[in-house]
Design brief:
One of its GO terms (cellular component) is membrane. The protein is mainly alpha-helical and about 400 residues long. It has helices at about 65-85, 90-110, 120-145, 150-155, 160-170, 180-195, 215-220, 225-255, 265-290, 295-300, 305-325, 330-340, 340-355, 360-400; strands at about 15, 20, 25-30, 35, 45, 55.
């Protein structure tokens, strides 16, 4: 289904433009480093305008940005959860979706005459590296979902906030506030509660879903072997989730070098969709030639569940579109806070519709991570207000 606004604001996974509202229209003042992390699970979307340039648009509904963000998180999370409950591998179900997505976005980009690959040689290489890293993030997220329940996966994926804070301190020499330190602490404790390492928690308390392709093997073994497999599977899922968060933070660092290109959102989605499709094709080649697994071509594509899962996967694309609309209508700090609703959706879906209930430690860990997101969002909101007030005061002083 998991990931800079300015140089001193690199400690969040959502860093976008802010807006001010007039009586009759909305004037959006976009900074040159607006970024959104919002797809699969992380693709960097941006829509750039020169510093200080104001764009007059029709005034949107006051809460439309929040509602779009909530809807986007709900659609993406629900579609991901439902496909797994249909017992269809997500990497199989997404093949048709990305073929359709590339076709539609390709038509849109070509019809608008948007350049797909622009910039100097260095910038083109950075775009390529960015696509490759997002391919790893894509695979890590959906393979990790084979081994972890959705609430655990989603919570651990939010460690991208922690990594961006760390990178901001180490690379950009930012001075973190007490609130940021508290948010980092809550995130670390939350990750420990969700991961439940064996030197703190008893192994028998650890539960994990058995991947579909491993069920026949596990059924032939004893209880001890099953418990060992569950533990190993959970560790694989945790490692992939944490790695996804780390790579997501790396993506922000690379994207910061591409800010001046003013890449269109549709072009970015098209670039990354193509890479994701290559990852899915590679997965099929891997299963076909190395694992001798022919089920996708001989069984899966002939099941009604597969085509239903493919149809449901298109809701993920709608979720991405809603997320993109949200960031054009709401402050980045607010979108950051609202994005944590994905964890809540995952917990509700898991505990209402499956027998695998989240234990108390997972619920507590998820709550701590949500709290850290809320703290960072509120902190950034206060900073945005101060920055906006300072700009207004400076402008008034200049006019005097």
């Amino acid at each position: 289904m998991n990931l800079a606004e300015q140089e001193n604001h690199n400690q969040q996974h959502l860093l976008l433009s802010s807006s001010t509202t007039n009586d009759d229209s909305t004037v959006k003042t976009r900074r040159s480093s607006s970024v959104l992390t919002a797809i699969e699970p992380v693709v960097l979307l941006t829509e750039e305008v020169d510093d200080g340039e104001s764009i007059a648009t029709s005034k949107p509904f006051a809460l439309s940005g929040i509602l779009y963000s909530l809807l986007g998180c709900f659609l993406f999370c629900t579609a991901t959860f439902t496909i797994k409950e249909l017992q269809i591998d997500l990497l199989d179900a997404l093949v048709i979706r990305f073929i359709i997505q590339i076709f539609l976005f390709g038509i849109f980009v070509v019809s608008h005459h948007y350049p797909i690959w622009i910039g100097s040689s260095k910038e083109k290489w950075l775009q390529l590296v960015l696509c490759i890293l997002n391919g790893f993030v894509f695979l890590g997220y959906f393979i990790g979902f084979r081994y972890l329940p959705l609430p655990d996966l989603t919570t651990l994926n939010f460690t991208r906030l922690l990594w961006t804070v760390v990178f901001g301190i180490l690379i950009y020499k930012e001075k973190p506030s007490l609130i940021i330190f508290l948010a980092v602490f809550l995130t670390l404790i939350g990750v420990v509660f969700v991961a439940q390492p064996t030197f703190i928690f008893k192994q028998k308390k650890i539960a994990a879903e058995i991947p579909l392709n491993m069920t026949p093997i596990i059924a032939l073994n004893g209880t001890d072997i099953v418990d060992t497999f569950l533990f190993s599977s959970r560790m694989i899922g945790i490692s992939l989730s944490l790695g996804t968060g780390l790579f997501s933070a790396f993506n922000l660092l690379i994207f910061k070098q591409l800010i001046t290109l003013k890449l269109k959102t549709s072009v970015l989605i098209l670039q990354h969709s193509f890479v994701f499709l290559l990852c899915l094709i590679f997965n099929q080649f891997y299963k076909y030639f190395l694992l001798n697994d022919l089920t996708f071509f001989t069984l899966t594509i002939f099941q009604w569940k597969y085509w239903l899962a493919t149809l449901i996967s298109l809701l993920q694309t709608l979720g991405v579109i809603c997320g993109n609309r949200a960031v054009k209508r709401e402050r980045p700090s607010i979108v950051t806070i609202v994005s944590a609703s994905e964890i809540i959706y995952a917990i509700l879906l898991q505990n209402i519709f499956t027998k695998d209930k989240s234990n108390l430690w997972v619920l507590l860990g998820s709550t701590l991570v949500i709290s850290s997101v809320f703290l960072i969002g509120v902190h950034k909101f206060v900073q945005e207000r101060k920055t906006k007030k300072k700009k207004i005061d400076d402008r008034n002083n200049v006019n005097k």
